[in-house]
């Protein structure tokens, strides 16, 4: 007998079987896991990233897991033509890629936020603008992967937070525009907490952040589910994202204290 969770998963799998899905930033981390979930669901998948050899490995794994089809486009999102990814229709666009950034105090290097805005924001805008005609035709979905750092300020992710806050501004406003236009395209903003992707960069922060990271596999599935169910926002992990959001609006001073509590400030100053 299937649990309610199991029944919902079956529904999601049927919704995505045969659907055409793009996942950006899918050569590793959460994006890689999203590609594998979609493959198990029998979707037609296109994945993007810069590292072709990694894309080839992920593609091979997706084929073995049952993808209806799998293609990849390698290149940096700073200068990728969105059209190169948009061939023959689209049902779901999952924007997930992220530029590398430093976890520490922002020392005023303006070029870093400028580059990060290109990778983390303007390429999301360009991909969305190019995909909209196809998504309007298919009554599809856009899923933008953001962060708690895009809803609540953090002292050690200033440039990164700048880009993630911008995603909220763009996609929340675009959602309202599409509603006014009666265009049946859903916009889902995924507000994520700390996720365990096992990468070196994550290890670099693990000694500073006190809470335990959530599993990338479950995170990836929750992102896909939120897009398929056309949710406005996903908060994952639910508690560790929702509590700071409540505190931000109602008890900001306590949030400042909480930030100091979940981060070993002194350790950051030495990194
Ligand atoms: N991990 C976490 O704790 C959290 C992650 N998030 C968000 O989740 C998403 C995925 O993060 P995560 O899986 O940790 O990231 P990873 O660093 O593991 O993966 C990032 C992906 O983006 C690709 N990428 C990086 N730079 C570029 C570029 N310039 N052009 C095109 N592709 C690029 C990388 O591939 P390649 O290097 O081959 O290009 C890789 O596939 C991001 O949007 C991130 O902000 C949000 C909150 C917490
Ligand atoms: C420091 C992380 C970014 C690491 C990076 O640059 N990755 C690419 C490395 S590569 O060049 O080798 O490819 C940050 C990425 C996600 C951040 C976390 C997040 O977004 C959720 C929380 C938000 C909160 O405001 C602060 C703590 C977070 C856990 C935050 C910490 C920094 C990241 C892990």
From TrEMBL:
EC number(s) reported in the record: 1.1.1.146, 1.1.1.201
Topological type in the membrane: Single-pass type II membrane protein
Keyword terms of this UniProt record: Endoplasmic reticulum, Membrane, Oxidoreductase, Transmembrane, Transmembrane helix
SUPFAM superfamilies in UniProt: NAD(P)-binding Rossmann-fold domains
GO terms for cellular component: endoplasmic reticulum membrane
Enzyme class name: oxidoreductase
Gene Ontology molecular functions: 11-beta-hydroxysteroid dehydrogenase (NADP+) activity; 7-beta-hydroxysteroid dehydrogenase (NADP+) activity; steroid binding
Main location: endoplasmic reticulum
Top-level taxonomic group: Eukaryota
BP terms from Gene Ontology: steroid catabolic process
Catalytic activity: 3beta-hydroxy-5-androstene-7,17-dione + NADPH + H(+) = 3beta,7beta-dihydroxyandrost-5-en-17-one + NADP(+); glycoursodeoxycholate + NADP(+) = 7-oxoglycolithocholate + NADPH + H(+); 7-oxolithocholate + NADPH + H(+) = ursodeoxycholate + NADP(+); tauroursodeoxycholate + NADP(+) = 7-oxotaurolithocholate + NADPH + H(+)
InterPro entries attached to this UniProt entry: 11-beta-HSD, NAD(P)-bd_dom_sf, Sc_DH/Rdtase_CS, SDR_fam
Signal sequence coordinates: none
Keyword Transmembrane helix appears in the UniProt entry: yes
Compartments where found: Endoplasmic reticulum membrane
PROSITE patterns: ADH_SHORT
Keyword flag rRNA-binding: no
Family that this chain belongs to: Belongs to the short-chain dehydrogenases/reductases (SDR) family.
Subunit structure: Homodimer.
Record protein name field: 11-beta-hydroxysteroid dehydrogenase 1
Originating species: Crocodylus porosus
